[in-house]
């Protein structure tokens, strides 16, 4: 598609200036330089390209070159100096306008992201604003959140590295990549799960083994907020549950919010099932860790002993001690579910470090 023709109005009194410079050898006045900057600003705001605008000035230079006065080499040098001044001042005004536009766009983008992730704006208005950034919020979107050893901002190398890797593989029109509260955040269409998987891979590598959580896809303007919240909850659960997985999917962790929905009931279960462990030498923590490792290993004694750096005999003694104190046998399928649920509850509620 050909570029639109640039009106001559953006040249201003360029021809007059060249003629006077050729005749007198003067330099441009401050008002003339300011006028060139103003024209550059107006051309930038009109959406023209700087390359085409410079070409317009060069073409006008050839047309308006004061031939009769240009036989003197000194006059030629003055005209060329005037051309340089005119174009330089024009480009300065153009670039200032562009920088201002970029800052405005960045501010608008940041405001949109805040409203999108926190749901602080009217949802209908939010959907309208989203089209400006290439998003159609009527469709399902999912959010991934990555954490690392330090807090990140958009100007850091890590976000730029992840963004470059992502945009090199996928069309970025419907992908929103940003930082929020020191974390990397990626919003992508729910129909493109590969985007968030690739984001997770790149973010994990760029953050030196950081953790990534992916929320479920949800429809509508409020769906982004919901998916974002799910990703944050997944990261919090990973910390409290000491999960080792580098990439967590909220869909795989739905059981944990269900278990803690009735906090009082869960606290009662932990106290009744695991409270007696506090009578053990060293308190409840060593036996609680033993139970946690036992259940994580699929109740396989040899694997549990290996993970805890114990002999199988020492592990068996600990499990027997749990049975003696609680009355529940970890190896008995009838008791196992209740004990395992109580262990999960203890990790979620940070017991016994915190009183229930």
Describe the structure.
The structure is a single chain. By secondary structure, the protein is α+β, with helices and mostly antiparallel strands. It folds into 3 domains: 8-102, no CATH class; 134-253, Reverse transcriptase/Diguanylate cyclase domain (Alpha-Beta Plaits, 2-Layer Sandwich), CATH 3.30.70; 257-349, Orthogonal Bundle (Arc Repressor Mutant, subunit A). Helix content is 60%, strand content 7%. It has 14 helices and 5 strands. The protein has helices spanning 14-24, 30-45, 50-64, 73-118, 123-130, 157-167, 193-206, 221-241, 255-260, 263-274, 285-296, 301-308, 312-326, 333-349; strands at 141-147, 176-180, 183-189, 211-214, 247-249. The protein has a 5-stranded mixed β-sheet with strand order 2-3-1-4-5, with helices on both faces. A hairpin with a 2-residue loop joins strand 2 (176-180) and strand 3 (183-189). Helix 1 packs antiparallel against helix 4 and helix 10 (263-274) packs across helix 14. The radius of gyration is 33 Å and the shape is elongated.
Please summarize what this structure is:
This protein is α+β, with helices and mostly antiparallel strands.
């Amino acid at each position: 598609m050909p570029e639109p023709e640039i009106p001559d109005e953006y040249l201003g009194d360029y021809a007059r200036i060249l003629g006077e410079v050729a005749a007198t050898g003067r330099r441009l006045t401050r008002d003339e330089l300011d006028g060139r900057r103003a024209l550059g600003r107006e051309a930038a705001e009109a959406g023209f390209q700087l390359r085409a605008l410079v070409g317009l000035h060069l073409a006008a230079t050839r047309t308006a070159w004061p031939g009769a006065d240009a036989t003197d080499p000194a006059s030629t040098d003055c005209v060329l100096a005037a051309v340089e001044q005119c174009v330089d001042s024009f480009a300065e005004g153009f670039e200032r306008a562009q920088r201002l536009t970029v800052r405005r766009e960045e501010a608008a983008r940041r405001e949109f992201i805040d409203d999108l992730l926190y749901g602080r704006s009217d949802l209908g208005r939010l959907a309208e604003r989203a089209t400006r950034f290439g998003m159609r919020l009527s469709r399902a979107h999912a959010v991934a959140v990555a954490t690392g050893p330090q807090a990140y901002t958009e100007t850091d190398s890590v976000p730029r590295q992840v963004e470059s890797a992502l945009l090199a593989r996928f069309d970025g029109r419907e992908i929103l990549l940003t930082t929020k509260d020191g974390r990397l955040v990626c919003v992508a269409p729910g129909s493109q799960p590969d985007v968030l998987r690739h984001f997770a891979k790149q973010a994990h590598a760029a953050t030196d083994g950081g953790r990534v959580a992916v929320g479920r896809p949800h429809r509508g303007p409020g769906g982004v907020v919901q998916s974002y919240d799910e990703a944050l909850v997944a990261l919090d659960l990973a910390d409290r549950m000491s999960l080792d997985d580098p990439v967590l999917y909220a869909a795989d962790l739905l059981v944990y919010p269900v278990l803690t929905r009735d906090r009082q009931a869960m606290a009662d279960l932990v106290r009744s099932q695991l409270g007696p462990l506090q009578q053990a030498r060293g308190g409840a923590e060593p036996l609680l860790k033993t139970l946690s490792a036992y259940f994580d290993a699929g109740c396989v004694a040899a694997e549990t002993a290996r993970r805890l750096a114990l002999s199988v005999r020492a592990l068996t003694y600990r499990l027997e001690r749990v049975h003696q104190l609680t009355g529940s046998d970890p190896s008995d399928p009838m008791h196992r579910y209740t004990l395992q649920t109580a262990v999960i509850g203890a990790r979620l509620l940070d017991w016994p470090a915190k009183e229930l």
